[in-house]
Amino acid sequence: MGFRIVKLPDIGEGVAEAEVSAWHVKVGDVVREDQPLADVMTDKATVEIPSPVSGTVAALGAEAGQMLAVGAELVRLEIEGGDTAPASVPESGVAVAPEVARAQDAAAGQPAAALVPAADGLEPAQPAPGSAAAPKPVEPPKPAPSKPASPAPRPAATAPSSGPPRPAGEKPVASPAVRRRALEAGIDLRQVRGTGPAGRIGHDDLDGFLNAPPEETAPAPAGRVARTGVEEIKVIGLRRRIAQRMADAKRRVAHFSYVEEVDVTAVEELRAALNQRHGASRPKLTLIPFLVQALVRALPDFPQMNAHYDDEAEVIHRHAGIHVGIATQTPSGLMVPVLRHAETRDVWNSAAEVRRLADAARNGLAARDELSGSTITITSLGALGGIVTTPVINRPEVAIIGVNKQVMRPVWRDNAFVPRLTMNLSASFDHRVVDGYDAALFVQALKGLIETPATLFMEA
Amino acid sequence: MSEITTKLLVLGGGPGGYVAAIRAGQHGIDTVLVEENRLGGTCLNVGCIPSKAMIHAAEAYHAALLQSEDASPFGLSAGPPRLDFSRTVAWKDGIVGRLNTGVASLLKRGGVKILRGRGTMVDGKTCLVETDTGPERVRAEHVILATGSVPAALPHLPFGGRVISSTEALSLSKVPATMAVVGAGYIGLELGTAFAKLGAKVTVVEMAERMLPAYDAELTRPVARRLAALGIDVLLGAQATGLSGDALAVEVGGDSRKIPAEVILVAVGRKARTQDLGLERLDLDMSGPFIRIDERCATSMRNVWAVGDVTGEPMLAHRAMAQGEMVADLVAGRRRAFHKVAIPAVCFTDPEVVSAGLSPDEARAAGHEIRTGLFPFAANGRAMTLGAEDGFVRVTARADNHLILGIQAVGAGVSELAAGFGLALEMGARLEDVAGTIHAHPTLGEAFHEANLRALGEALHI
Question: Which of A155, A179, A184 sits opposite B339 (nearest CB)?
Fold first, then answer.
């Protein structure tokens, strides 16, 4: 028997470290060659690291959510008759690993990261189908059945298997080793039933608690019940990146928002007519491609909006090409795929590309360069209603356009109220580099273009 | 001024600080330990260790004295003993010195950098250390405050001259003819007993109506008997009012008395060492005179931790060590919390007293229905062969499930039983667990076994 050490390969972004976002194995698991070991995440991409050999997992180099240096020990595998030579993942097995050789070089000079040894009772990796961020619900304590003046319940061996683990306020009894294991696994021992003498919680009880199905369907007590459980959800992976980026944006960008009502009756009529005329032969048009067209028309007059502000270098990069980020809700959180060179596309082309990007992002198939490089962003919560949003700027961009719900409203026109389909545009700008006056002019320009859709298609 | 940047700075090299530093070193954490005096703190230099050495020497001398007076119970007689007290002190200092060196080498093995000098906090991450070779500035990601405690003084009996603290009592040049001890806590009684055995006429003055007020009367009764037998006067409800010529002025029940005292040992407790450390420049929440900490020894400032006496009672070296070890683990990124069932306490009086967990009164006050079992050493074979039959082991358990809540003992040598007591409590033992464990015969530990049996109504030897 020997050990094979799998190191974190350079996954090709020139990054020094990456986050282990999910484990597919845990200590003691038998893995086959090419079986995925872990998901590793960098700024944009999640890469699956497959096992280079078959073996048994002896130790994991990090807990889910931890950062690991490129070249650091990711997994230690116990293999038949092998030596203990460190091994990087072979190129064939890695999704994006063009620079494995470099990773090995880097690894040579780098101390191995602290390993989580198998014997240590840690629970670093739940076998995580899908996502390691899956929250582990902490079983809420059920209230003690109120039996006034009844003698203290006989615990010990006669402890009932339902109801609360122990009367309220009673400290759990457990050996120091069990207490430490629980703490490290993030378990509140007060929630764990002890089957030992005097209700003592043993390692077996802890195992049982850890492996228990998430919802234990105890008979619901009559009446309303106070819920006191607290669910702990680790902020890791994509969610952590979103959190960091949002906090960064809010901390650094001087946001201001500007909201204007836009009459979308004409553009909606046009959209409906086009969809009807072409039916299934062309991609179905939503409002987004029209808004993209409006941006393409308006931005040449407002180059300061299609820009990146590098606030550390104090330089503004005005972009000639228009790359529109489309904020997209995916199962794992917000992603922003990019419609590249919108100025080269017509509405159908835009519509097809937006749809393709959204699907790719939702299915986790978006390539890294499809998720970066936008110069201005559109965010749409319109379908969900809402009058106004205050969108957060996708730094280092300086503008973001939000689309709100379309509503039929009575509008005063030519001495009469007429029904018009209206919609609010909620736009945010980085006031450090965009003046309010310019922002207002820009939104008014968008409004003008959308309200008179013919202008969207007229060459200037 | 040179500047050192490190991951962890430990301010204070006592049991809390040095243990934290050793563990941090083992974790591979870059650690700097700042100590103004000698490594080992109060415990090693002027507390636990030297006082136990003195107590042992005093006991040996006292036993020899009994033999010379033909008072040995087993018929041993010897000539009158002579005590070269300067050699006693030198022997004690030798032990302290060896342990100092031991701590230093353990720290060195862990790769800990030791900075000798007075450390003053500049902010939550920076400490200015006045070393022999000039000031050094240490910048650290994490800081552990382990500055310990100092003897508390009485305003009308300030330290100086004949008025001494435990520190000076351990380095007297000769045994005083008369000694007054102010305070009948464990420090005063331990040292008072030792000096009485060495030949001093000792009087203990205590303001409260009881000695060893932290322990219950049943537990301290054998100690009181022994003090009386050694000719130590214990004045309870007595207040030391000041010096009066060669004597200590005391008021007892309205009467003024003068107690002849060549040396006056003030042992009225210890106070947290929070002065002159720059702590006022930190934004630390206090809990009375102590630094407030949570169950992880975290202070109100992020990455500033505090362990040991500076965080309050119980001021015990082993508590500080456990805290220090835990904080080092925390700094290394482990999940830890100070969830202990018991912190055992030992008095090296004659006889010794041990307490772990709750006393019967405390257990009742906590709302428990209890059953207790007490087994006297008078019924223990080993105690008889040691000529030390006074004392007992007492266990307190819950009446409903027999979970042991507390264990106390008083008797010669019972300090060594503390290990078993602590283990039983931490493991969540029931009376049946200890009762079902074979305790080797003939040992004092059998009394622990029997106390559990007795609590179950199944005692064998009584």
Answer: A179
Give the homologous superfamily in CATH for domain B2-46+89-150+271-331. Answer: FAD/NAD(P)-binding domain (3.50.50.60)
Q: Cα separation of A182 and A190, whole Å?
A: 10
Which pLDDT score is estimated for A141? 46
Higher pLDDT, A227 or A388: A388
Query: Sign of the CA dihedral A381, A384, A385, A390?
Result: negative
* For residue B27, pLDDT beyond 70: yes
Cα A279 to Cα A414: distance, rounded to the nearest angstrom: 36
- B64-85 pLDDT per residue, tens: 998 898 878 888 888 999 999 9
Closest CA to B137 of B3, B29, B260: B3
* Best of A170, A173, A175 to mutate (most B CBs within 10 Å, chain B): A173
Query: Which residues partner with B178 through β-bridges?
Result: B201
Preceding peptide of A396 cis, ω within 30°: yes
* Closest by CA position to B148, among listed B311, B264, B369, B294: B311
E strand or H helix that includes residue A342? none
3-state helix, strand, coil split of chain A in percent (to 5) is 30, 25, 45
Which residues, other chains included, contact B283 with Cβ-Cβ below 8 Å and sequence gap of 6+?
B124, B300, B301
What dihedral angle (degrees, nearest 10) is formed by the CA atoms of A236, A241, A245, A251?
Answer: 30
How many C-beta neighbours within 10 Å does residue A385 have?
9
Question: Is A39 part of the annotated catalytic residue set?
Answer: no
pLDDT band at A123; cut points 50, 70, 90: very low
Mean pLDDT of chain B: 95
Q: Which residues contact B445 (CB under 8 A, 6 or more apart)?
A: B417, B420, B439
Interface contact B118, partner A, CB < 8 A: no
Cis omega (within 30 of 0) for bond into B351: yes
Measured distance between the N- and C-terminal CA atoms of chain B, rounded to whole angstroms: 71
Query: Which domains does chain A carry?
Result: 2-108 (2.40.50.100), 156-211 (4.10.320.10), 238-457 (3.30.559.10)
User: Average pLDDT over chain A, rounded to whole?
Assistant: 78
Which residues does chain B have within 8 Å of residue A199's beta carbon, measured at their own beta carbons?
401
- Please determine, for residue A204, whether its predicted confidence score (pLDDT) is greater than 50: yes
Residue B419 touches partner A, C-beta closer than 8 Å: no
Identical fold for domains B2-46+89-150+271-331 and B163-268, yes or no, is yes
Please tell me which residue of chain B has the smallest CA distance to A173. Answer: B428
Return the domain boundaries, chain B.
2-46+89-150+271-331, 163-268, 345-455
pLDDT at B96 > cutoff 70: yes
Measured at the CA of B309, the angle between CA B301 and CA B107, to 5 degrees, comes to 85
pTM beyond 0.90, yes or no: no
Task: Name the residue of chain A whose CA is nearest to B403's CA.
Answer: A198
Q: Which value does ipTM take for this structure? A: 0.71
pLDDT tens by residue, B164-173: 999 999 999 9
pLDDT interval class at B161 (50, 70, 90): very high
A308 in active site: no
- Match 């010990």 to its residue by tokens: A156
A370 confidence band (pLDDT: 50, 70, 90): confident
The whole-angstrom separation of Cα A424 and Cα B321 is 64
User: Which CATH code for domain B345-455?
Assistant: 3.30.390.30
Residue A344 phi, psi dihedral angles, 5° rounding: -95, 0
Q: How confident is the model at residue A154 (pLDDT cuts 50, 70, 90)?
A: very low
R_g (Cα) of chain A, nearest Å: 29
Check: CATH 3.30.365.10 for B163-268? no
Q: What angle do CA B137, B143, B149 make, to 5 degrees?
A: 100
What is the Cα–Cα distance from B28 to A148, expressed in whole angstroms?
56
| CA-based nearest residue in chain A for residue B330 | A184
